[in-house]
Each structure stands twice: as structure tokens, then as C-alpha cells.
Amino acid sequence: MPEPTVIVTFDVTEPHLQYCLDSLARQRDGGGDTAPDPVPGFEVVLVPVRAAAGADSRTGPSEASSDDHSADHSGDDDGAEEGEAAERAEDSDHGDETVEDTREDALAVAAAFAAAPPSGLAVVLADTDPAPDRPSARVRGAAAASGTHLLFLDGGDALTGYAVSYLVDSAADTRSDLVVGNVHRFSELGAHPSSFHRKLCGKHRMAEDPRAIPALASDSALGNKLWLREFWNSLTDHGLAPEDADLGLRRAALAAAAVDVLPAPVLLKRQRESDPVPLGREALTRRLRAMGVLAASLSTADRRLWDRPLLQGELRRLLLRLDDADEEVRELVLDLLNAYLDHVSPRLLRGLGVLDRLLYHLVRKRRVDDLLEVATFAKSVEIKKANVVRRGLGYYIRYPFFDATDPAKAVPREVYRLDDELRVRQKTEDVHWKDGRLHISGRVGIRHLRARKRWQQHVVAFAVNTSTRRRVRLPVHTRLAAEYRLPDLVDAARHDYGGFTVILDPRRLRSGGRWEPGDWKVELVVVNRGLARRRIIGNPVAGPPERPGYQQVDEDLWIRPRWNRDRHLVVGVEPSRARITEHRYDARTGELELEGELVSAPAARATELRLTRRPGTAVLHYPLTVHGGRISARVRAADLLDRSVSECGGVVRQEVWDARLVTPDQESVAPVLPDTVHGGTYAAEGSHRELAVQRTPTGHLALRAGHARPVVDQAVWEGRRLVLSGDFTAEAELRLVVRAQGRDEEHRLEVERSGSRFTAEFAPADVPTLSGELSLAAGGYQLWGRVLDSDGAGSTDVGVEFAEDLIAHLPLALQTSERTYTLSYKGHGLPILRVGTDLHPAERGAFAQRELRETFYPAQRLEPVVDGVLFDTYTGRQYSDSPQSIYAELRGRERWADYPMSWLVADGQVRPPADLSPVRHRGREYYEALARSRYLVTNSRQPVWFDRRPDQVVVQTWHGSMLKRIGFDIENIRGKSRDYFDMLAWETRQWDYLVSPSPWATPILRSAFRFEGEILETGYPRNDIFFSPDTEAVAERTRRRLGLPEGKKVVLYAPTWRDDKYYTRGKHKLDLHLDLQRMYEKLGDDHVLLVRRHPRVVDSVPIVGKDFVHDVSLYPEIMELFLVTDVLITDYSSMMFDFANTGRPMLFFTYDLESYRDNLRGFYFDFEETAPGPLLTRSDDVIGALQDIDRVAEEHQGTYRAFVDQFCPLDDGHAAERVVDRVFGKD
After folding, report:
1. What angle in degrees, to the nearest 10, is found between the helix axes of 281-296 and 245-253?
2. What distance in Å separates the CA atoms of residue 1139 and residue 873, rounded to the nearest whole number?
3. CA-to-CA distance for 230 and 238, rounded, in angstroms?
4. Contact at 8 Å (CB) between 446 and 388?
5. H helix count then E strand count, the chain
6. How far apart are alpha carbons 886 and 1020 in whole angstroms?
7. How far is CA 449 from CA 38, 72, 357, 533, in A?
8. Which of 573, 592, 610 is the last residue of a domain?
9. Do 345 and 307 contact (CB within 8 A), yes or no?
10. 448 closest CA partner among 501, 493, 389, 506
11. Which of 274, 299, 322 marks a domain boundary?
């Protein structure tokens, strides 16, 4: 049996080492037939590292953001290019947890752990003299290790509780040189699967040639790998610098004779903030030469495996960053890259995606300026809008310089040719049985080649036996369906002939009239305009298609369709060899008793019941009694319950066990749980856990052991309210929440309990918020249970399940006048509430919007302008800011009291007053309002297609106060198209008036927007509230609305958004660096913390402590929040200019000042000198300043007063009045 040694390399200042070591102490053996024990023969070697001043002890390339839009969207999708690129993008998502000092406490933590090791661990502190870097530390650790296998772990990371046994067991079974496990990434904001490793580890591989796993050469993670020590010691030392050690580790994977890849996560990798490889001569020269050194000794085949991920990953990202480099560095990059490309196979270069081919063609031609243009194109939305054209028999994509007429700009047409990019996309939307046949429906087509006419696309279907490769042609019907990305509705904006239905008659699968057990897949052959592509039917949409059901076709013979790990449909022809007929729980012994009957061999020879915890991380064995055609087994509930896995807040959760009956020669049979035998749930006495007997979607037996889960067995819409009823076995307080998928947002349901029964209600169309009752935003929401601990101090989130009988009646939909709400499920029965968009079917999708933009809007411009004012704040995301103040001023004037007015509303997330007609953003009335409204008052950018008519008036109030550079003054426009400045110039010409907040800001606005119209130097109308006679009444109303306690100081934290931290365009992440828990501990007694997200940020705020943190992001008007705020914490937000009118203290949490100022936006003035409060870089500094706020305020009195004098001289309560007088006229 392998003997593992875990080598922990840690920086002496590592603040999270104890968490890492605790994860080693929790390691347990997942197998056996008794309670889990510590992994035997487990050695830990601790090696400290002390990096040189200013250096990061973690080696390897900086983990810079590599945004999705920089990828070649026409490229192939084998995932090779997504290796460390995706990892680095994820590392930039949240940043590191706050480290409050640089004390070398980690040495003491390590020494204490070595002096008193946990039971079962042999711990050695290798050297108290720290190594200078991590590669040196790994060498020391390997020399001190005595195990047969080595696992290297960073002191800031951690292992899952089963990781060591899981990796070791695989190594014992296969004797592979290297075992690789999956990875989750985590921070104080939560955990999530690594997108790259989810693909790399999606399939369980045993003793595989690493050349069959191309993505392996892109995996720069280390703590997810178990190395055979003999293999590790045999690796060649290439003399790399410590900064490039990651390249050596990736290169080492290709040297393995055999590799195992395991699907379950073993490494919990901490997300840390870091920077890209510096764009400096020394760093770039060293890095690219290291790549060449490592490639030089590879065979031709291995060289291709090595080059491809570099060309599609790190080297591509380097080229896309050239706009940040000076001319000297750009020339150096061309020199180094051309030297590398001299040894790259031309065939490999031709096989890259179009964007990569274009980039490297320009590199070879040394066309630096054109490279910069392509980089801008690749990082903008332009790349997604590029058109495909046909030339002769080939298809090409219009990237920069395609068909250029200028010889200096010409690029060979073949560079743009689409080959593998013209791949099939397919989704399965319905799988059901009808008259004994399996009907499989969905949509299919070749990317870029929409089948507008029936003759353009022909589809043929085959059932293919996965073992014998026998092929059976199946009937397939094509039909008119909505375009691929839209719901398949009759009134969708556009349709094509991409719909299909395959009909599989199981009798066709017989051979010579006999049934043969086996698995079949369904292959589609799609022929479109002479191109033929193949695709296995897969990609089921969430809900009923994921549970296709099974059918009996002969005595004890069943057809059992299922979805495999690749999400392919597998149709199993399976005889029933054993059935479970009864189950019961003996509370006295704590055992689950299973009884059943044998049907056919080899079940009759079975001697044990084997239970395997999904996805294979633990195995248990129980004796099986076979007598007279009957079987029975007893399973100790504690064995399963003690091995349930719930880590990272439940993100890593393993509770389901698959059952097999196993013979002495290791043949196995999956017992069936017939439909006539109901599942059951048995509560574990004295705990919040349970053991459940379940039926899988294919009808087989499975057991679930772990946290008690609510099971919903009844669901109904009562009016606009969703009513759910069900069972919950635990005697604990239960709460239910719906949690948004893809962003951090949740809402509680109303729950009533009666014994084990519960009833919950929720009105998704009328959710109470600080902005009034609003609909949930469009998207998916999963239902979760929150089980409170017995002491009330904490809680555990558990998944809610639907009962089988209820699943048969889903989905259930509520149709309101605004949108559709659909209760459905995903996977094997996890409840999902899907909230539709407020756009009508004919308004959805790129084609529909283009039609509205290019046909409907121009037609509306031919109609007369009508009286009306359209107000817009942040493109419909708020009812607030200067437009709201101007609206209030207008309504207060007699002539405008009844004048038609409307407010732009995005996705129903704003509730304007009754006298304002809501205008749906991107809805038909939006285009009409922009074409025909006499007045437009906005604080936001307008679409480039908006063309003001002569009798329309546009008032741009703007929303910022000119700390950050804007408009034409931003030197490096990130993520914008190449014609960004042309579009900006067009847009500003549509404005009649531009509101300025101060004389200081006026010349900046004039030049930054190159605005030639009239600037209204009035002050911002939004600041009138500070001088209103109703100020105190508004403040008191705001306190009551927020439920703020009396006598506590109110702190408002309102950071701006980060250009480089986002989910998708326009949806940014909450880049939270304040340690909320520490703030609560230090300030919770006499402070409350209000947190306000920027309108672009979609995440919710973590709620910490009792009545301490309040998420006020949905409060409609931030100026009202300022009235109740005692101290403002912000960073670079323009609200500092507004809040200065209160005279109250401001703190500036500027943890990324240098990066934000120098790389992202740039400033108009010396912020460090001018700021009306201290600039703080650490969370503890912010806490300390709040604790001594009077002294801090006094120290900054002078700069505060100067700040107000310079930036706020026009704020007097009459700005809205001045704007209205000039634009709309005096009454």
C-alpha cells in the first residue's frame, strides 16, 4: 500500500496555516466496514519559506485576469486554452482575505503542530531556517520525506477530508506515476468549483497516457497531485528560476508513464490577489526562454501538447496586454515570441482558432500597431458580433483586416477560415416515452450556419452500441423552431429549421430477434450546405429531460435511459437481476435492513453489498445473505452518516451512496428499487441527520446519509403566491430560502411547522425590498433549507428535494402580465424557480433587438414627437439621482403637474411613483419613447443608435464628479470596441444640455466629452436634499424604514465598481475587502454597518453578526442614506463629493489605489493630497479609525474644508430649480 507524505510549504507570514494543518488532521479513511479512521501511515513534512523583501514566495506566473471576452469565440472547445487562464481569472474574482500584519506567526503554528501532532499523523518540521522560495522548500521537503508518494501543499490552501485516502487508493489500484484530483477555490465570500479542473477532471481516468489528456499540460495547480516519489526524484532539473517553477511542474506531467484523473475535489485552493507577469525586459525574457528550454527536449508529439496550451493561453494573453507596454517592451515581445515560434509546428499554428492564427501571423510579420488593434477588438464585444461570410466553398469570419484593400494591412484569407469552429451545437429539450418508443426532441445546428430554409440542413440519426459499435438508423423529424438561444415559443422573434425529434423503438436494438444487454448512444449527423458534422445527443436542459424515465420491454428486461458524466444520453438495455422489495430501520441497532429477490445471474452468486459514495471517494462492504432466491443485508446507519461530507459551506457535499451486489470474482449488479416499493427517510436519533432510501432516475437503489433535508411533496400556485408543503424529519428550526444562481442573492420564504410537516409560501412577483415590492430579477433560483443549530449560534444550508410523485406533475407555471414564473427542478429533483424576462417573446434575442433597433425605431422617428418626459437613471436600474430631483421639481410646478412623464425600468427592478409610466428597457415602448418623447432626462450613457430629432431635448445630468477620468480622457479603454471614441463623439452630439456640479468640473466635462453644447453649471440636483426644510423628516423616515436602532453610530460603506471584476458585461462582482466579522467583533456593540453596492454590482452583501450588517443596495435614493450616516467609508466613488455637504467624517478604503489610479481609470487630481479623510489600505486600519473617529475627523478638518470649497460651491438646495428654469422654462 502506498505510504503518502504531505509536504506543506508555507511562508513564515502565512496567516492561514492553521486552517491548512487542520485539514490534514481531519483526513479520514473513506473505506472499510467500520467508523472512519485516520489515514494510516500518514506523514507530514512542514517546510517554511521566507521570501526576499517585495517578493512573493508563491512562484509561477502572476495570476492575472484573463477575461472571457479575450478568448477566441470562434475557436475550438477542447478546453486546452482554458488552463491556467481560467485559473488566473478566478483568482482575480475576489482577492485574498485580509492579512492584518506580517508577523512570522506561521513558524510558531508549525512548531506547535509538529510538537503535538494529531493522532495518526507523523509530523516533521524540516528546517527552522526558512527556504528562500517554494521550489527550494519542495526540494527540502522531498529529501526529508520517507513516504512512497508525495503531495505538495501550499500553507494557505487545504485538502478535503477524504483527499489523501482518495488519491492513495487510486495510486494503489493503478500504480500510476501521478494521480490528479479536482479543485475547488475559496475565499471568505464562499467556494466554487474551478472551471478549468471541472473539465480536466470531468471523467474518471485510470492509468491513462498523459498524452490522451491534453489539458493536463495546462494544470498549474500542485496540491491536487500525488506523485510517485521515485518518479518525482527522476525528473530533470531544468535550472528554472523560482518564478517559472509552475512551467516545470506542468512539463513534468508529460513525463509520467501513466496518470489517474479523479472527479472529486481534493484541493481547496485559496483565492489570492496577484498581478500578471510584469511587462518588463527581464521578467519576459526569463519567462519565454524558460518555455523554450522546457520545450526543447520534447518529442514532436509532446511538443505539440506543450505548445498548444501556451499559444492559446499565456502567450495569447501576453499579446492582448501589449497595449499596456511601452514600445521597447513590445519590440522585445516580438523578438522573444518569434524565436519561440521558429520551433513551433506550422501545422499546429494552422490548427489554432482564428484569433490565435491572426495574432501569431501579425507577430511573424512584426506588425505591432495591427496587433494592438486586434487586441482591442478581442477584448471588446466586437468579437462576438463578427460576421461569417462564404467565399467559394469556405466560410470565413470578419476579424480585423479581412479582405483589406491596403496591401500593408493585408492578411491571407486562410487565416480567417472557419474549420473546427463550425461545430455542432445541440440541446435536448424533451425526452419521453410514447407508445413504447422513446421520443428525443431538441434543437441542433452548425454554429454560424443557421438553417433558414428546410433544404439547408439535413439530419440523420443512428443508435450506436458503445461496445460492438453496431449502428441502427433511427427515424428523425426536423421542424421549424425558435432560434437556438431562445425558448422554443411560437411567437419568438425568429425561427429556423433547427428543431428535431428522434424516435427510438427499442425493438430495433435487438440482434437476430434477441435482446442483448448493453449501452447505446444516439448520434446525429448534421449536413448543412455541404458540411457534415457528427454529434452525440446530449446537453439536456434542466428539468424533465434530465429524468427520461424507463420502460419495460420484456419479462425482467428494461430500457433505462440516463445521462452520463459527459452529459450524453445513454440508453441502457438492462435485465433486472435483483430487486429490493422491502426496507426498514431498526432503531435499536441503528441498522437499515434491506431485503429483496434475485432474478437472474450473476446476482445469485453475490456475497456482499458494496456501497460507493459518489463520485467514488469512499467504499463500504457489507455481508449479503442469499437464500432461496431471496437476499438480505444490514447497513449500519452510523457508517454512512459518519462519512457524509460537507465542506466549504456545503459546496463540497457527498451524501449519496450507490449500491452494487458483488460476487467473489468482482462481477457486480445494481439492484433495482421497483416503482411499487416506496423510498423512505429515517431520522438519526439525537441529531439533525437522516438516512434515506431513494430510487435513482434509472430505477436503481441509492442511499443518502447526511443532513436532514426538507422534502416537498405538494406544490401549487395560489394567486400570485407559491405554496409548498412537505416533510422534514429533524427536530430543528427550519427556514427556506430561494438563492439566485450565478450571483449572491437570496430571499426567505414564510414557513409554518406542524410536527414533521411544513408549509412555505413565497410570492416571487411581489418580493418586499427597500424599494417596495418588486419581482425577482430574471434568472434561476434554487430552493434551500437552512437548519438552525440547537444553540441558535449557527446554521447549515441543505438542499431541498422534490418527492417523486410531485416531480411527475412539474413544471408548474404562473403567468402574470409582466412575466412567467416556473417551478421546476434540475438533476434528480433539486427545486428550481425560473423567473422569465419582462420582455415579450418577440422582443427577446439578438435578432429581435436588431429588428427593433434597425426597423422599428427608424419607423417611429417618422412619427410626430409627442409631449412627454422620459427619465432614466443608470439605464433603468434605479429611481434616484438628479433625474429624480428634476422630476420632483417639475411635478411641483403647476404647468407640469399633469404633463406625461415616464421612467425607464430594467427588468422590473424599479418601482416609480404612480404618475410615472414605467418603460421596459429594451421593450418595444423603449424604442418608441426614445424616438418620440419630447424630453429625455438621463444620468447615463445612451445607445449609439439613438439619434435626437430637432424637436427633442436631451438633458444629460451625468452622475460622477470627476475624480476618475472619463470619456476621451481615459487612455486605455478596457473592453470597448475599436470605434469607442467615434461612438462617444456621436453620443455627446445628441445632448442639448450637460449638467456640471461645480466650476471646477465644467472645463473637465467640456474637454472629456468634447461637448460643444450648453453646460448648465448649476450643481447636481441630487444634492438639493441636504438643504431641504424637510431634511430631518426625511432622515427620520429613512431610519424607520431601515429599522436602525437608537443610539448606535451608523457607518455606510459604499465602494465603487471595479472595471476588471465582473461576471458578464454590465454585471460586476462585489470586490469586498473589509473583514466584516472582525468589524462586528470590534464595533458591533455601538455601530451598525450599512453596505451599498454600486448599481453595476449584482452580488448581495454577506450578513455578519446580529443586527450589524445591513445591505441597503436596493434603497432607492442614496442621498437619503447620507442623511442618517455618521461616517462614510468609500474609495474612489463620486459620492464623496455629495457626502461632503453633510460635514461628517469620511474614510477612504483604498486597498488598490496604485492599481486603480495607474492601470484602470486614472485621476484628475492628486487624490492622496486632496482627499477629505485618511486613505487606508487595511481592514484593521479602517476599524481603528472608526474607533477613534473624532480624532481622525479633527486631523482632516483643513483638507475637508478645502475640499468642500473647491468641489461643492454650488450646492445650495436650488440646483434642480436652476436646471428646470433653463430647460423647461419658468412658470
Report:
1. 20
2. 19
3. 18
4. no
5. 34, 65
6. 10
7. 57, 18, 22, 12
8. 573
9. yes
10. 389
11. 274
The three cell numbers locating residue 274: 496577484
Dihedral of the CA atoms 63, 69, 73, 75 (nearest 10)? -20
Query: Is the Cα torsion angle 900, 901, 904, 907 positive or negative in sign?
Result: negative
Other Cβ atoms closer than 10 A to 575: 15
Q: Are 929 and 901 spatial neighbours (Cβ–Cβ below 8 Å)?
A: no
Phi-psi region of 650 (alpha: psi -120 to 50; beta: other; left: phi over 0): left
Whether residue 829 sits in one domain with residue 857: no
CB contact at 8 A, 1104 and 1080: yes
Q: Which of 225, 166, 182 is nearest to 87 (CA)?
A: 182
Judgement on whether residues 562 and 605 belong to the same structural domain of the protein: no
Determine the structural domain holding residue 562 and report its residue range. 424-573
Crossing angle for the helix pair 327-341 and 354-365, nearest 10 degrees? 110
Look up residue 1126 and give its DSSP letter.
S
DSSP 122: E
Distance (Å, whole) CA 383 – CA 71: 9
Whole-number pLDDT of residue 96: 37
Residue 666: left if φ>0, alpha if ψ -120 to 50, beta else—which one?
Answer: left
Three-state DSSP class for 673? coil
- Rounded Cα distance between 352 and 367, Å, is 20
Phi, psi of 889 (to 5 degrees): -65, -45
Residue type, 130: P
Each residue of 1056-1076: pLDDT tens digit?
755 555 445 555 456 677 888
pLDDT of residue 381: 85
Residue 303 located in a structural domain:
no
DSSP 413-471: GGGGB-STTS-EEEEEEEEEEETTEEEEEEEEEETTB---SGGGEEEEEEEEETTT--E
Whole-number Å distance between alpha carbons of 166 and 330:
47
Residue 584 shares a structural domain with residue 679 = yes
Overall number of domains in the chain: 7
List the grid coordinates of 561.
Answer: 435511459
Entry field: residues in the chain: 1227
Is 392 a domain residue? no
CA 577 to each of CA 561, 581, 595, 669, 953: distance values in angstroms, whole numbers, following the listed order: 17, 13, 14, 7, 78
Q: How many other CB atoms are there within 10 angstroms of residue 462's CB atom?
A: 18
Residues 190, 96 share a domain: yes
Four-point Cα dihedral 321, 323, 326, 329, nearest 10? 40
Rounded mean pLDDT, 939-950:
95
Q: Check if the beta carbon of residue 521 is closer than 8 Å to that of residue 426.
A: no
- State how far the Cα of 313 lies from the Cα of 304, in Å rounded to an integer: 14
At residue 72, the pLDDT reads 42
pLDDT of residue 1047 exceeding 70, the answer is: yes
Residue where the block lists cell 481592514:
1179
pLDDT tens, position by position, 154-192 = 999 999 999 999 999 999 999 999 999 999 998 766 788
Cell readout for 935 is 424630453
Name the nearest CA neighbour of 1146 among 1222, 1099, 1199, 1214.
1199
CA atoms within 13 A on the CB side of 1105: 21
- pLDDT of 76 strictly over 60: no
Per the model's pLDDT, the better-predicted residue between 86 and 607 turns out to be: 607
Tell me the C-alpha to C-alpha distance, in Å, between residue 291 and each of 79, 87, 303, 1087: 20, 19, 11, 54
Instruction: Tell how strand 149-154 and strand 158-159 pair up.
Output: unpaired
- Coil, strand or helix: which one is 1065? coil
* Distance from C-alpha of 668 to C-alpha of 603, rounded to nearest angstrom: 7
Q: Say if residue 36 is in the same domain as residue 172.
A: yes
Task: Mark whether 320 and 340 lie in a shared domain.
Answer: yes
Task: Give the residue among 1127, 1138, 1163, 1131 at the shortest CA–CA distance from 1023.
Answer: 1138
Can you read off the three cell numbers belonging to residue 621? Answer: 462492504
User: What region, left, alpha or beta, does residue 129 occupy, with left being phi > 0 and alpha being psi -120 to 50 degrees?
Assistant: beta
The 3-state DSSP class for residue 774 equals strand
Q: Residue 1144 domain-assigned?
A: yes
